[in-house]
Amino acid sequence: MRLEQHKDCSHFKEIHKSLEPATIWRVAKIRPDSLSLMKFLSRLGCKKPPEQPALCSKCTHQYMHIEVVHPLFECPFTDSLTRLQTFLETVRPLSAPLHEHLNNSEPATRVLYLMGMIDDVISDLMPIELYPEFLINCANFLQSVLAA
Ligand SMILES: [Zn+2]
Prior knowledge:
148 residues, binds zinc ion, 2 strands, 9 helices
């Protein structure tokens, strides 16, 4: 019985993960110029974590997360952590509470925020009309991280 419940749970997570966040498309509608960036976030969000450890071509370490976590937080061959700090400073003028919230969140969670995959607490942290600008900045940042 417990195993069945567990299976159902992981099955649901799998389905849930493949759902595209409506937030991304709402932003694309409000800011049509952001469509390609939002498509980029959507593709990133729909990627599954690797089932086998993936190999980083820069540091040759293996990692199991969605691809953006490794270059952002782990890879010793990037300056992404510095760039992330710089990026987070651009969040502060939009919303100091969101800036603080992001600074205090776990790396994997932080990435989900930057990908527009978590939006349920955003409205508590920033004026919602600023959210499109935030997410567009995030998409630009993540693109530059993956291109580096
Ligand atoms: Zn690496």
